[in-house]
Amino acid sequence: MADELVLLDFWPSPFGMRVRIALAEKGIKHEYREEDLRNKSALLLQMNPVHKKIPVLIHNGKPVCESLIQVQYIDEVWHDQAPLLPSDPYQRAIARFWADFVDKKIYELGRKIWTTKGEEQEAGKKEFIECLKLLEGELGDKPYFGGENLGYVDVVLVPFYSWFLAYEKCGNFSIEAECPKLIAWAKRCLQKESVSKSLPDQEKVYGFVLQLKKIFGIE
Amino acid sequence: MAVVKLFGAWTSPYFYRVIWALKLKGIPYECIEEDLLNKSPLLLQYNPVHKKIPVLVHDGKPICESTIIPQYIEEIWPQPSLLPSDPYERAMARFWIKFADDKLILLALSPSISKMYRASGEEQEKAVKYILEMLETMEDHGLIGGKKFFGGDKISMVDMAFGAVAHWLGVIEDAAGLKIFEAHKFPRLQSWIQNFKEVPIIKENLTDRDKMFALLKRRREMLLASK
């Protein structure tokens, strides 16, 4: 019996992008369904009753929720192609630590940058750059966080690159000036088809953010 | 033989998540109690990013975060298993572990930061509402089917992730003079709490209730007096 895989997603979501990249890296056939978050489908609400959020991965009718969990699930089920997590348990713990760090910090700080102004925004920018610098430290001289190939942390972090232009324009700063190594890493990732096909254009995301700001009445 | 050290603090439910994992698997370890108001240079060296407990040090290598440490322990010492072997069941377990972590952190059911006994008025009301929502989700979605534990018949990492609800919530309620968890409103949760606390390793490894109550009461009085 062939596997049936459906991804409920929303094009600008960095969390959705993680799953898209993982599926593409492993060449897994699936159906992509775009959700309108102002009018969530009955399927979404049924498959993720606790959080009612995307992305939701539905594998043979059974839902898996939360992007980090979905990426790990994909890695475990399709373990023969393009492994994302290291095989060594200690290295796996390190990878999970940094994925958890990205999850706890980058989205919230990025959000702070495009939704606030003045002192709050400045504090957000400062902490955001500090976090990116910590990540640069972890990357070191490796081409990817996963070493020679794209790994778990790369998949978890690179989607936020599509939001960098929006952060820079809203926050009036240059991420590249502060973290050139990280930008070089992101561009390296984008050379991979799995990443370039999964990430929307930065200008498109910026346009979306401007729309959101209008809707929420944020200057 | 490899040496296992665990940095922690007696009040923290996050610390206990790791203790339970180690003890359930019969892994000997050395415990290093940290004073959270005066953290040791060694702790800061092992966890420079977050500077928090718990930290597990195995063979001199540090592992941080109370949801990541048990997974590491599971991979090095697989028996008895605390996580399902089936990838889908494992994804479900991870979902509930994340839910517990997200809700309990924001709350937080750790005596050092809980808004419930630290705050009053509107702030406290918000915290209470938040906890009730969490308890309702656990009752309606997590424990559906009348299971003994979150993962079925055996205790797993999911139960340990919710440990704060089984033991710490009650003490914090008492210290704050609140009653949030009413057993008759949450029958499945009430059963689960009893099942959880009856597991011998759990029963023998719970933070001293009276000692914690006294500490929280003192802290609450100090905080309210300073406002």
TrEMBL record, chain A:
Top EC class of this enzyme: transferase
Which keywords fit this entry according to its UniProt record?
A: Cytoplasm, Detoxification, Transferase
Start and end of every GST N-terminal domain?
Answer: 3-82
Where is each GST C-terminal domain found?
A: 88-208
This protein's record includes keyword Cytoplasm: yes
Main localization category: cytoplasm
Domain of life where this protein originates: Eukaryota
Q: What GO molecular function terms would the record report?
A: glutathione transferase activity
Catalytic reaction list: RX + glutathione = an S-substituted glutathione + a halide anion + H(+)
What the entry lists under PANTHER family is as follows:
GLUTATHIONE S-TRANSFERASE U19 (PTHR11260:SF781), GLUTATHIONE S-TRANSFERASE, GST, SUPERFAMILY, GST DOMAIN CONTAINING (PTHR11260)
The similarity comment for this entry is: Belongs to the GST superfamily. Tau family.
Protein name in UniProt: Glutathione S-transferase
Organism, scientific name: Theobroma cacao (Cacao)
The organism's lineage is: Eukaryota, Viridiplantae, Streptophyta, Embryophyta, Tracheophyta
Automatic annotation (TrEMBL), chain B:
Tell me the ranges covered by the GST N-terminal domain, including all copies. Answer: 2-81
Which reaction does this enzyme catalyse, per its entry? RX + glutathione = an S-substituted glutathione + a halide anion + H(+)
Gene transcribed to yield this protein: LOC18602839
Q: Is Magnesium among this UniProt entry's keywords?
A: no
Q: Which UniProt keywords apply?
A: Cytoplasm, Detoxification, Transferase
Query: What is the purpose of this protein?
Result: Is involved in the conjugation of reduced glutathione to a wide number of exogenous and endogenous hydrophobic electrophiles.
The name on file for this protein is: Glutathione S-transferase
Any one GO MF term held by the record is: glutathione transferase activity
Q: What GO cellular component entries does it have? A: cytosol
- GO BP term (any one): toxin catabolic process
| Localization per record | Cytoplasm, Cytosol
User: What's its top-level EC category?
Assistant: transferase
- Which residues are in the GST C-terminal domain? 86-224
The family database entries (SUPFAM superfamilies) matched by this protein are listed as: GST C-terminal domain-like, Thioredoxin-like
Instruction: Say yes or no: keyword Manganese present.
Output: no
Main location, first listed in the record: cytoplasm
Q: What is its EC number?
A: 2.5.1.18
Gene3D superfamilies xref list: 1.20.1050.10, Glutaredoxin
Task: Identify the PROSITE patterns for this entry.
Answer: GST_CTER, GST_NTER
Spell out the family assignment given in the record's similarity comment: Belongs to the GST superfamily. Tau family.
